[in-house]
Amino acid sequence: MFGHIFGLLLDPQKQWKKIAALSDREIKKLLLYPIVMAALPAIAFYIGTTHYGWQVPGNDVTRLTPQSALPLSILFYVALMGAVVFIGWMIHWMSSTYDASSFPIKGIVLMGYACTPIFIAGAFGVYPVWWFDILLATVACSYAIRLLYLGVPPVMRVPEDRGFLYASAVFMMALVYIVLVLVATVILWEFVTMPVFVD
After folding, report:
1. Nearest residue to 70 via CA among 196, 178, 190, 183
2. Fewer CB within 10 Å: C terminus or N terminus of the chain?
3. Closest listed residue to residue 3, CA positions, set 18, 13, 23
4. How far apart are CA 180 and CA 157, in angstroms?
């Protein structure tokens, strides 16, 4: 399950072919991967924001109270898993349009592995240096998009040209999900889990 990580980061085309060669039963066993990996960023940012904090130049170190950071971390995990499940379900839902071989868990596993760079980059939140974390997140998201485009054709068993269109449609759904998360974040921060800072 975790043996695909280095392959996806170093030689993604070869690794996607290995994942595509797995049987449906073996792919279903990989569902645990995003469930575990999505916890890395949430736990890291909880530790980072409560124990170490972050600093804006010219200001003191800013930290969150543990009571305030816990629900935010849980919501962070839910948002990450929501992305994997929602976009993974969209991968399956669109499969008939592109004559792809699919079932719901296959789409979720594909999306979970495509998010590998995001999960790993999120682990660096354990010691928040905001300029570095933003840079790292940008690189991780860019590489995750590349993994998606490389992974859809072999895993979903569609030709390259159709796979490009398929992956582009999936990417559009990801953008829709991001907008929904941003709106939900504003509402939740205002009415449910407003951050409380340590004095």
Report:
1. 196
2. C
3. 18
4. 30
Q: Which H or E element spans position 62?
A: strand 61-62
Reported pTM: 0.90
- The DSSP output letter for 50 is I
Residue 57 CB contacts under 8 Å (≥ 6 apart), including other chains: none
| Contact present, 33 and 108 (Cβ < 8 Å) | no
Helix axes 104-114, 130-156, angle to 10 degrees: 140
Query: What are the distances in angstroms from CA 52 to CA 67, 77, 199?
Result: 15, 20, 14
Q: What are phi and psi of 17, to 5 degrees?
A: -65, -35
Measure the CA–CA gap between 75 and 70, rounded to whole angstroms. Answer: 9
Element containing residue 59 per DSSP (H, E): none
Task: Write out pLDDT tens, residues 72-117.
Answer: 999 999 999 999 999 999 999 999 999 898 999 999 999 999 999 9
Q: Which one is predicted more confidently, 8 or 198?
A: 8
